[in-house]
Amino acid sequence: MVLLTKGARGRKGIYNAGKWFSYFLIIGLIAGCGSVLFHYLCQLGIHYFMDFMAGYRPTPPAGEHHLLEPTTRPFNRWILLFLPALGGLVSGWLVYTFAPEAEGHGTDAAIDAYHNKGGFIRSRVPIIKTIASTITLTTGGSGGREGPIAQIGAGFASFLATRFNLSDRERRIMMAAGIGAGVGSIFRAPLAGALFASEVLYRDPEFESDVIIPAGISSVVAYCVYCLVYGWGSLFESPDFLFRNPLELGPYLVLAGVLVATGWFYVKVFYGTEKVFKNLTGVPNHLKPAMGGLCTGIIGFFFSHTLAFGYGFIQTALTTGLPITMLLTLAIGKIFTTSFSIGSGGSGGVFGPSVVIGGAMGGVVGQIFHQIMPGVVTAPGAFIIVGMAGFFTAVSNTPISTIIFVSEMTNSYHLLLPSLMVCSICFLMGQKFTIFENQVKTKVDSPAHAGEFMVDILQKLRVKDLMPAVKQVPHVHEEMGFLAFKRFFSETKQHYFPVMNKEERLVGIFSSTDIRSVIFLQEVEHLIVMRDIATTEIITTTPSEDLNAVLQKFTQKNIDSLPVVQEHDAGILIGMLDRRDVIATYNRQVERMKTTRG
Asked: Which residues form the CBS domain (predicted)?
């Protein structure tokens, strides 16, 4: 064994830290460049499809601006009716021809890759996802940008980990760092991006602690790259709303209930739509997004503000206000256009629409209470910001990262108290449904942690905890003749036989397999005693040993039973412990943990 000096160990630690920092730096750079490219493509698509073809020019949020000069083409509803179907046709062909796993909302696919595929994502997926999502979203399809950019960052990180022959665990961490970097940069919320990547994996309020620091590094780098190109600042510009009246918590409590009900409706419509399209077995998959796009276009024909991103309408609601009827149609219409655009197999994210839906419903509730009790609810726009956070919490089970998300996106940190209350209530009331179907309940339920939890659980248990399962078995004397043993063997179902000397001390052991070599040698069986068959290299355990170490001993020699001996005297046999009893104990512990958590 080579022992490293303290200085050598220190240099090795610095080298490893530098190596991983460089990995996360590269992921951040690529994710940031991917965000820049994706935003640029979206701007081009909106200009040439929605503006140039249909004369539809939705206003952007304050933190974004048109890259190209808007046209003067008159607004044409009829082109807008069929434009999403055209986009769905092209994006559907791309996805189902080259990368079927790029359909739908990309964050859920990344969650599935984390839990079930060792963090592996095919290298072509981010490319197809980028192109297909750009076409879907810029031809009027309703969706968000976080799904595509999450898969861009995650896909490159997975590719990098695979090229460097890293382990599944390391690939998962790098993939999650890519998610955080992509989402944090495109929404100008680096802290929230890092927290989101570690929180969105689970339904329960649980963080993937290994992910937070790597995702934080990558997210900061990606955010800087993105802002160096498109400018610094938050996505939305918000008035300086303040929370000063505890009586306002009453209306916020009502808002939480409204958001949960709307979130439940959103999830049901989204997955109901997805189920309907999947059951259309007579229709080719690549045509289904076109059908969904046509349904989206029909809604957009009457309510054009429900198409594409919709961030500009929330910006208008924050600064100058929008009528209740328009906010209500924006929220409900957005639920259906998103469900048709993405649930039919189109490509896009669900966080962006959730921000718009939640903000619009928050605006509705805020304006209603402002009319009823103007002395308490003085600024209905504050309900828009809290509504954004509460709604996405209700549908995604990510209360902490969502609060930070909305605070960073709006550059408003004065509403943390009502946001915390509303998000907590939304989380508690919304645990039975989620927009991310591939979330698992806890780490215990994740295949990615199956081996780790087995070790953790078994290390906490000792052999003494299984003493009722330790069997008192008949032993064999070392001087016993083989003929006498054959008679004994014919009357027992025992498979492992401890061998004792005349002082009743354990000196060997053998199994039923070990006697096969001599059981048919009748000419010498009268000369053999059991000492000749037994092995003296005995693998034993003691009452204080943990079950993980015991299980390793079982697998060393592929044996099914171990002698349990006294702590300080390996010659005194207590009994035999079977492998199946150890595994049964582990299964009982897991079930007990699931029952407790459930």
From this structure: 469-528, 534-592
